[in-house]
Structures are given as C-alpha cells and as structure tokens.
C-alpha cells in the first residue's frame, strides 16, 4: 500500500467516476446515503484500495463491491476509518471497472449510521468511465431495501446484514437495462402508513429531503440529509414505486398509540375481512397525492407503480389512487404493473423475497420498462 | 371392436362420468361446445373407444385425449361419425382414467362446427370417477382459446389447428388445483369490442346464452346454444376473467364499418399515443357492467380479472371499471391480478402465448387462487 | 379432397422430398420402418393430405406430424388405408414445410406391423426442400425408442402408445443440429443380451439387415427388411450408440430358458453385488465386436457410446470394451460420453425417461457433438 | 467487543465444534489448509467474533462465513491478526449456527499463505453442534478449487479472489447430502502432470502428506504440512476424484523444460490430433497407481472418478486406468461418473465453471452418490 498514491473523490474528474444514489451538497467525503449508493471507476494499475469512514450504533452498514460487473465481496463495516483493498496484483495495463456500494438502506432510526467515501489509493490511472444515458429511480419499502435477500429462510431477526443492494431487483433491473439508478426505500414504511399502523412512516413525508430517512443528528446536520433535495440535478427516465405492502399489512396489526399526539391509529377490517372503506380511501388518497408530488419534481418521467412481490391485496386501492390522479391531472404517463409474487420456493429470510424472487421481478420489470421506454437493447 | 358393448352417454350414471364445460339441455348426444369441454371416465377392460359425431365447414374441430392424466393424442376431426380408439390391449383389471375433450374454441362464425359425444365402446366396466369439489370458470379471448399454443413462431394463418385446451393456462390451472372448470372464450373478442373495433364482438353480449358464440343454424337450433344458460346448474368457486387484450388492440386498428348499422366504429388514440378518454371510458363501463352481470349469476364466486399475458396496457382502465363496480355495489369479492407477459422466449404461433407462457401464467394464477380460496393442497 | 391431385412418393423428385430413416429397396409405397422414419416436403397450396397404409396386430403403429417444425398431431393408426389431412385452408402461396413420421419403433415381435406412405394429395406444388448436410445415426434400446416418453408416471403397461420419436433425445438432437438422422432401436434389447437375459435380443445380431427387427412375415418378405442393408447408401457423420441399459438389468433378473436351445441364460452377480467377471466380459466383448462391425460399415463416422439415462452401472464395462477395441484396432475415432441420468423429477411412464430427461440428454449430447464434429452453428 | 469472553479453539469440547478439512497435528491455532477447511459452531448470545491470523505474499487468502446455512460474507484477508464480527445484536437466547471457512485453495507456490483460527469471542454459550455421520473427500484441480467461480467471464488474471469454496460443487454436494467433507485440490495440477506439461504437478505425489501442496517454509515447518497425513483419523464414505482436465490440456501446450532435471517434458499428439499412445499410457498408469494409493489409505470408501466439467477428452484414458486397477486388484468398489460439461451459458471467469455449472455438477453428483451410497434423505 505504501507505493500507492491517494486520490480524493473531489479530485477525480466527473467523467472518470460514476456516482450512484441521491446526493446532497456534500461531496468530500462522499456520503453513500442509500442502499445501492456507490461509486464506479475504471482504473489501470495492479492495486486499488478505497478509503472510507463509517459510523453506526445498533445497525452497522454493510458494503459490497464488484469487479468488471461481477460480485466479489460484501462485508460488515464497524465504526472507524477503513482502507479496503479492492484488488491487488492484477495485470497493470488492463483497465478494471470497479463498483463499490452500500448494502444497507438509509436507516431511519439509527442516527449515527453513515458510510463516507474519502478516496482511492492506486498505482494506475483513472480512465474515462462509460456513462449511463438511462436513469431509473426506485422508491420502496423493505423489498427494495433487499430485506431478507441474505439470510436463512428461518432467520427472523431484523438486522442490517440481511439487507442488500447486491441481491435486489432494483440493482439487477438497472444493470440489465444499463441504467444509472437511485434507490429510496425504507423497510416497514408505506405510502400512507407503516406495517404497524404508524402513520409517520410514510415515504412521501420524507421524499423531498435529500435523505429524509436519516433524520437524527449528527448525520443529518453533517451531511445535510434533511435539506431539500435538488430534483433538477438528476431527472429519471422512469420512476418505479414499489409501495403498498406495509399499508396492506397494517390492517392485520394491532392499533398503534403515538404518545406525542396522544392518538391511536388503526387501519380497520370489515367483519367479512375486507378493508374498511374509510381506511382504504386513506391509501387511495396517499397514492394520488404521492403521484402528484412525484410529477411535480420529475415532469417527464414515466411513473410506474410496480407492486406485488409480497401479495397483491392492494391492487385495487392503488389503481384507484392512480386513476383518481390520472383523472384529475390528465396525466397519462403513469401506469400500474404487478410484480410476480414470492412463493415458498422463492422466499429469502423472514418471509421476504429471496434471490429467486428478485430475479423473477427483475425479468418482468425489465421487459416492461424496455417496451415502455423503447429501450431496445 | 366387435366384442365391445356400446354404452350411450345418457346411460352412464352421473357418478361414473365427469362432464367438463357448459351445457344446455341436450345430453344425448353430448355436445362439447367449448375448448376444454369434455368427458372423463374411469373404466376397466382392455379396450376403450369413443363414438363421436362432428361437423364443420372452414374451421374443423380438433380433439385431444389423455390417459391417467397424461396427454396421449390430439387430432383434426373432419365432418362425419367417428369411432376413436382411446386405448387397447391394456391390462384389463386396472382402472384407467380417460379424459376426452375439445381442443377448438366455440366458433362464432362457423355455423356447422360441432362435436357430439354419443357414447363409448368397451369390454370393461365403468367405475366411479373421482368428483371435483372445486369449480373454476375462465372467460377470455384468444389467449384462453389457446390460440398459437400450437404452431411455429412464424405461422400467421388463423386456423383451428393452432388453438387448444391442452396447452392452455386454464386447463393447466384447473388440473393443478384439482378443479372442474368451464371455459368461455373467443379469439378476437373483448369486454367492450373486438380487436378490429367490432363492437358486436364483446363477450358480455353472448355470455348469458348457453353458447352465444355458436349463433348460426343448424347448430344453434339443434343444440339449443342460444337458449338462456342455467347458471344455477353450475356455480363456480371463482371466475377468472381474462379480457381486455383485444379492446387494447382496437385503438391501433383502422375504423370498422358495420353495414347493418351504417355506422363506423373506432377506438381513438390521443396525439401523444394515450387513449382517448371517451373511448377508454367505454371499456371502463363495460368492465363494470360485466362484473354486475357475473355477480348476478354467481352470487358467491370470487371474481378475479386476470389480465396481462399479451401486455398490460389496460391495467388502469380495467381496474377503474372494477373500482367503479366495487364502489357502487359494495361488493368486495372481486380483485385484479396481472398475469406474466409473453416475451420473445415464450411466444407460440402468430405472436400469441406459447407453452412456456401458459406455464408461467399457470404458476402465478394457481398460487393466487390457492391463497385467495384457501385451497391448501 | 375432391379437388386435390394425387402424387405418389415415387413421382416426387428427390430434391423435393427428404426421407428419414433406413430403407431397403422398396420405395413405393415407402415403408417407415423405425421410429423417426418419415418424409418431409415443402408445398404450396391450401390443403395437404397424406395417403398411408398401415397394418398391425397387438401393437398398432402411431404416427405424428409437424408443420413448419412445430408438433401438430400424433395419433394411433389401426389397420387399413388412411387419408390424413395434414393441413387445410392455409394461405395458398406460402410454402409450408411438413414432416410426417412414425412414432413407434420397429416391432420385433409384431409380424404385421407396418406403416407405408403411398403419396400426397394437394392443390399446390412441391418446392425444393432444404437438404441436410449433416447425418446422425442413433442406435439404442427403449430409451431411443422413446418408451415412456408419453404416459403417466404410474403407467406400467408395455404398449405402443407410450413410445415415440416426437419426445425423444435422438429427434431433438438431430433437429437442434439441423441433421438428417436414422434411429435403430429396440426396447428391451442390449449390446450382449436383453433385459431378461435373452441373449438373442442383442442389437448387433440384427444391425446389418435393413430392419432385422421386423423378422416375421409378411412384412419381412414384402418389404425386404431381412435383406442386407446397403450401408454405402447413407454414411453418417457420427453414430451414437446408447446401449447397455438392458445388459445391466439382466444381472438382476431371473434366468431365462430358451427352449430351442434347451439352455438357460443368466448374467450373474457376485455375493457382494458386483458383476461376475466372466459375465461382465461378455458385455466387454460384445461392445468391442459391435464397434468393429460399426467401423466396418461406416469407415469415417465418429462413434460415440452415449450411455447413462437410466443409470451408469456399465460405465466401466463399456469403456473396457471401447478401450479393447481402440487398442486392437488403433482406431481413435471413438469415444465414450455419459448422458445425464433420469431422476424422480424427470421420469416419464414406467420408470423411463420423460420429456424433461430427453431434453437434458439433448442439451448435453448436442453440445458434445457440436464440439466434436466442429459443427459451429 | 469489550463484554465478550475469549474462547480458544482448543478449549471448545469436540462435541461443540465441527472442523472441516484435513488437519495435521497442530490444533491451536487451528490451521485452515484447504479451501472449504473451516469451523462450525452453534452458539447463543447476541454477538460473535472470530479471531484469526493470516499471512500471505502474492496470493492473499479469502474467507467466507455463513449463518444458519446461508452465505453472509466473503472477504480478502491481508497479513495480520484479525477479529471479525460474525454477527451482532441478535436475539440472545436463540442458538445460531455459524460456519467460517477458507475460500482459497492450498497454495503450492505461496510459502507464507496461511489462515489460522485462534478462537471466538462471544457473550453466549457454545451448544452441541449437529454431527455429520457422512463423510466425503474431494480431490481435484482448479475446478475443485472453485477457480473462476467468482469473477466476470472476461477476467483472465490468475488470482486468489476468483477461487472459492462457497461457489463450488464440492461444498454444495456435501451440504446437499448433509456430509462432512475434505477438499484436496490444486489449480493446474493433474493425475500425471500439470496443464503445462510439468510432471511435478501431479496430485498423487503430494497426497500422502498433510498438505503436500504447501511445501515452502515457514508454513510447512510451523504447521507440519509436510508430515505424513494420518488417514486413520478420518475415513471417508466416498472419495470423489475430479482429475484429468489438466492432463488433457498438456497435450496442447508447448514442451516444458525442468532445469533441475535438465529435461524437457511434453505430452504428444499424433498427426491426426489423437493422443500419442505412449503418453496416454502415462495417464492410464497414473490413474491406476493413484487408485491403488487411495485404496491403501481408505479401505472401505467408494471411489468415484468424477470428471468432465471442462470437457471429457480423457474419458477413455481414465477408464482404462480404472479398469486396469480393477482388473489387477479385483476391487469392485470403484466407478467412473461423468459430470456435466460447462457451456457458454455456464462459464464463470477465465473459461472455468461458474455458479450454474457448479450447480449442474452438484445435482448430478448428489443423485449419483445418494443412489450409490444408499443415502436416502
């Protein structure tokens, strides 16, 4: 490592680095705020290291990296400064493409959790990195956070190590379509409320901030995650919204009392097991409102609500919301697409989609986007 | 064949024969009106023949049969009386289960087309046939008629031989779920209009007759296909409606002039390629009305609109219709379920689903129905 | 059918017809002696019929046909003259490629069993048919006769309807490699003896006659099946020998008494369950001798012993025979290739390979032959 | 980590730890000499760490671990002492099963390369670990070292990071069969000579030492890898020998000059491309001799030569060696089994088997061993 020169992120020309994931104003060190957030470079030389700094409390971040498009490693990062060797002793003159990324979702209840990329150490040169002309944004819950994509079927703990961007339909779809992509997801959250009836856990309420999920100090202050996100800086060709699974679950969960409001929340079922219409309409309205918000920030993106990997119980409520939005706005550039359900054969850990389920979803969604966006290769 | 005794359909006790498919009042000879319509028996003896009578003009019917659940033969039937050997020289004492069925859909424009089962010839005995406690009804278009399920990818003629019940998600789903089933389908038709803007080609307009599709003489008169169907005679546990594919196509087809009405029909696209709202609402209304009709006749059935094997462009229009129905009726026992799309790898003949696509649909739909109906084996 | 003209096989120029399968001197009517034996033509016109004559006793022949490479029908043929419609009402100007073939193996114990093609009836013209520049010969037992490729897993009768050329690794491999092919196979037979220790049931003893399997009158006399086969008339690029499965089974079967010889035969096991060396050497010798015979008749063909679809117990005995042959002859153009075994998931009827097993074998064997023969497309 | 107690390997009762892989006399710290060598424990508690020491020069070792049978991480280990957190913050009372193992093969040309396990840190208790009653030994080359099981198809560097035990048919087969297992493999080596005609690179010459592959100081002295291996300490039920691929390659490689012997080695081809018989017999003899050696040390094991994942060119030479051994020894407890070849669809990095190929081999080999060893679950 002694013979390697250090290059900070800020000193790498933009044509020699691809950055994945939403960003605020901080660029040095570069914060990786979401799962899938990462850096991609092409370098010559025999050895390459990356310098990062991480912090965390209960939920430690995991990272992964790939070489020339192939998965090479994923590992747990405990708090501290780390120099990680990404490759060594390779043929020096051949350009190597490396992608390093965060596995763990933005953690809404882990104030200290962060991954910062400071720079690289290498004995070669940075080359121009192929640029992505296509852009996809994925908005979701635990499914899009890759929860259970690692782990045994019987594992039930709720831990960082089970989540990923590496075994994840969002990452796979973006790779398959050769697209840059953003992930904005949070396990347990919904479009109207969380799995446990917590109405604060809705994605729209945090979507307009850089990373509204990381709301606690010191990260929020330091990295500016609670500042408004500059949507103009990155306009997706398509937005994939995979929300609703937790809203559906809330109907079968006990009421939730929120002390700050001295109020109890509960999505109710009718006696015949169907959804209480009043409560269902809250979801319908939330879908409509979220589409309005998304359209405001991304005027040209195709917006597809892609739902169904853990059941499709909300198909009608979601489409009612979409149709209401469509009807009022006249906007035709929205659609609904059902993803294949997860079955006993395709579960990962704690009843979440495993690799095979993410592969199934990738196949269907990729085909859908290819046709819809006229991406013919 | 000389040593075999002849048994007419009417002389077989009902516990010794399963009849698949909708029926009118005629039982002898037994008309097989739809694809999938057929008979199933369990017999001992070494040899078994079936006596049938068929007629047709341009589109000849095809039939198929299976032995102990395994496909054995499919063949073209030209007009005439036929005695078909279903097996011979088998071990006499072992009971054999045989299902004989029509491959070709009800033909809406082929007056003479018919398949009548007169009876069996055998040297053994009829045994009790296992009865199906579950019932499924499938309503659809060319997809449910198995169009293109046989034939080369490059074949484009519109012919009877390319259609089937044997390679068909409806049949496969029913078998997988051990269910009796009805198919009511017609290639080219829709819920509001046909693929070519022909508004007469909508399934609801013929659904309430025994086989409203076979509207020409002599078959209609002889077999009573145009009489009202007695829905009480067979109440399904679930109705799968796979309609919309042709309605969607009509937007991209030229106007259709109907001389009898001196009127031209055309589903219109907006300049941006989206659906003209006025025309889209015709589909929305047709969906709503058809659901009302279905519910009237099948008060307890779960109704699932299962759509998407040839694109999902109408997802929003269909769900708008379902939601309107749901909202007005308060009926919660309806749902929308998207079937996996057909891709280059899964096409059969003339751009219709092939075997692999029907298998994919079967897998998803079977899982859906199993969960929804609580059919746990 | 009235408007069609009749064309006899003998009147079709050779460039307008492909004939599959071994032939003797008879060409009109054309005998289809083996499973896979058949005719292939390309015709214009709207309608096509084939005229055949069949005879049989216990084991009736089955036939199948495909249109433009896609399976269309298979059916049982009872004794008599038959005109079978292969297609009707098709777009007349488009050339249609049709292959009609025998499903049932040559029947060694069914004297009358035969399928004769007399000619075609059509309203179009014969076109030049694409010729195959590659030739494959398959020699085998029940596996290559497609036994159990149709039928339910539980079926155990030994009947013609369970055998096929349509669901058969030999046919699939030839199609995948775009090759003309011959099948020479017989269920229950081996390279040294049959499954039941019957030493008369060895393929080498009949291989040099046109169809030594059909040894009874009247077919033998009429069709010349017992005359020496003219190997020069058709020289394969590769010979695939799939024999040994029945030789292996014989060790576990009771002794067989042959009255004509007043002698009892039995392949013996040692006490530890291994093969008696003396008996094993009979197989070793039979392999060596058969290779010598094959090489004599096909000096340039690559000969691959491809074995293992129902267990690989004879791997060492077979390779010992091959190595002995190789060592003595100096011939290096022989090889051994193991085919994937059939498992519970891939069985067809009566514990024989089903469709999935034949597909697995096809995949491996196709890849092997492609590399070995340098067939790079 | 402060609250955890340290437990050395030597202090863990044998019923509370499973050790995978060959061992010499050193137990503390526990050397992991081969890929797949590792430790498995079941513990309660919230946190678990492992303490290891590694060293290396050019080829750094990689390690991987799994939790409750599911892959969790793999990472590069650079020289030094490492404490690796295997899990944290888990539900304390639930027993967790953890397997930690070496990814990198024994490195024959990397003197310093080693992985030593010193012990664990935990806040729970060791539980009894389920014991394996079945034992499998795998002997092989780069295939069994998992070379190319990681990495992009286009990667061609020969580096440690591309090898694994985690994506490896040996590991998968052992897991599928619930068996303890040993791997003894070396990339580039053969049964008679290496891929480059280096006759020193034959597995039999090093097989009888603990880890004859790690022949350089300081590791050899320190860990006793060059001492005779105590075969009585671990008797396998079956030995899978996957050798021959490099012997076959040597025929197509240039001659190799060995300075120490002042001699040049070359496996020769005949003009027609077949193997020079004299050279082929060297392989035949090496196979025979190696079987004799294996039998000497493992009197009761079933020995199967399982070969073919990168072509089957040596099928006849290998079986000739096996048959010679069988003939001379009378030993019938040996067999030959061909593994499925790797194709364009299943390659990993630098033309070696990828995940899909290892899965295919696992499926076939598992079925073979299950039947052969009568392991019926």
Q: Identify the overall geometry of chain A.
A: globular
Number of helices of chain A: 7
Distance between the termini of chain A: 41 Å
Give the domain tally of chain A.
2
CATH topology of the largest domain in chain A: Rossmann fold
Helical residue percent band of chain A: 10-25%
Kindly state the number of beta strands of chain A: 18
Please provide a brief summary of the model.
Chain A has helices at 169-176, 204-207, 219-223, 245-250, 277-297, 315-329, 355-373; strands at residues 5-8, 18-20, 30-31, 38-43, 48-55, 62-67, 70-76, 80-87, 96-102, 114-122, 126-127, 134-140, 179-185, 238-242, 256-258, 263-265, 302-307, 334-338. The two termini of chain A are 41 Å apart.
Description:
Four copies of one chain form a homotetramer. Chain A has 377 residues and is an alpha+beta fold. The first copy, chain A, folds into two domains: 5-127, Galactose-binding domain-like (Jelly Rolls, Sandwich); 134-373, 3-Layer(aba) Sandwich (Rossmann fold). Chain A is 21% helix and 26% strand. The first copy, chain A, has seven helices and 18 strands. The first copy, chain A, has helices spanning 169-176, 204-207, 219-223, 245-250, 277-297, 315-329, 355-373, and strands spanning 5-8, 18-20, 30-31, 38-43, 48-55, 62-67, 70-76, 80-87, 96-102, 114-122, 126-127, 134-140, 179-185, 238-242, 256-258, 263-265, 302-307, 334-338. In chain A, strands 2, 4, 6, 7, 9 and 11 form a six-stranded antiparallel β-sheet that branches. In chain A, strands 1, 3, 5, 8 and 10 form a five-stranded antiparallel β-sheet that branches. In chain A, β15 and β16 (263-265) form a beta hairpin. Chain A is globular and about 70 Å long. The first copy, chain A, starts with a strand and ends with a helix. Chains in contact: A-B, A-D, B-C, C-D. The interface between A and D is medium-sized, with 30 and 30 residues.
